[in-house]
Amino acid sequence: MNNQITFSQALEGYLLYADASRLSPHTIADYTNTFRKFQDFLSDDPPINEITVDQVRQFMAAQDHISKKTLLNYHTGLSALWTWATEEEVVEHHIIKRVPRPVPEKPAIKPYTRDDVEAMLAACKSTRPYDFAETTTCSRSRPTALRDKAIILVLVDTGVRASELCRITIEDVDKRNKRIFIWGKGAKERIVYISASTTRAIWRYLTTRPEARPDDPLFVTQEGHQLRRDTLCHLIIRIGRRAGIPNANVHRFRHTFAINFLRNGGNAYTLQRLLGHSTLDMVKTYLKLAQQDDSDNHRHASPVANWRL
After folding, report:
1. Which end of the chain is more exposed for a tag (fewer CB within 10 A), N or C?
2. What is the pTM of this model?
């Protein structure tokens, strides 16, 4: 056991491991943010094996200004670091296991409606109306309209995560068989399926990129760079604003796909595979919502209730 490895040295070793293990850039950035905050809390650079459970608890308790979901992210990042350090015999004990995991509030699941999606697709075409010469209201066509329409259709049709969509390459799209190969969390590959309309939208967008190669990203910026997760998130927020959709975000497309898949008769186990979930826990949540819809629909459409028998 090397007790002289400092916290900063351990961070360097872990981040090299994380990069070699092909953790997603988003995960590494999230963990790095946690490590930096914990390092600032420590104020010095002690040997990692001398950091105590009480110090971790004090750090977590001091974060009373953030959400429990963010606090859970901090716990997850520190746990990943100590798991690695234990396996590398840099520390004797996995002290994070002795710190209770924060339980975040479950946010309300609010899928988009059909009207919401149609409004966002329409908002892809042009900018917000603006006044011209004080007497005329006009708008401009958006140069990324075809790309943005294809993005929204892929999100609605597959429920892929933001980071997964950004990693799709052109050769990952099998237009003939209407499917896309997705690299999910932990570098796990899965296949999702797309409709004819989504396939046509992708084809139409790619006709604007005649020089694109098979291994190029499917969705790129106007400068030709791979679309980043944060850029995609801001894009959906802006489209939502133009469409008049409050709280528009990428993850709501995942909810929208899942709930409508079940509403339309899709199988829960198939949905689990399509979403890339390791368990059925989240799918069960979607299933409850879909079943609630069935109950509401029956209450309003019941022949006995409507005929007042």
Report:
1. C
2. 0.69
